[in-house]
Design a protein that fits this description.
mainly beta, single chain, 134 residues, four-stranded mixed sheet, four-stranded antiparallel sheet, 15% helix
Length: 134
């Protein structure tokens, strides 16, 4: 009789320990303090309405001709030529900027690229300028 009682108590303790020690990840995650902000410039003039693509965790430049679905994130620069995103994953990423130069005599495509590294200890935030060209 006592053996059966202690067996039930032991199972109950194991169940409480199992459920009490299992991490609950329902909204209790801590967001990464990482971000990327970029400003696009062409001839030292801020370029609004440029499309910024981010390819995460890539050591190799992905090129300018990939479809939008290839990239992990897409942003559009504001009237000051700036776009920001937060949080971003830790790792080596590529920023690709595509747009048009509306100040030229004829509308010309402009583009630029920049590799960035996000590291929680040394560089959790990147704030940079991409100089785009024809």
């Amino acid at each position: 009789m006592f053996t059966h009682f202690f067996t039930k108590i032991g199972c109950f303790t194991i169940l409480i320990g199992t459920y009490g020690c299992t991490p609950n990840d329902e909204g209790n995650t801590i967001p990464l303090p990482t971000s990327i902000c970029v400003q696009t410039k062409h001839h030292d003039i801020a370029q609004p309405n440029m499309t910024i693509f981010l390819k995460y965790n890539s050591d190799t430049f992905p090129g300018y001709t990939q479809p939008a679905s290839f990239y992990d994130t897409m942003l559009t620069t504001d009237q000051n030529g700036r776009a920001c995103i937060s949080p971003v994953p830790v790792g080596r990423h590529w920023i690709i900027a595509l747009g048009v130069d509306e100040h030229a005599q004829q509308v010309l495509p402009i583009y630029g690229r920049l590799p960035v590294l996000i590291d929680l200890e040394r560089q959790p935030k990147v704030d940079t300028i991409i100089y785009v060209y024809e």
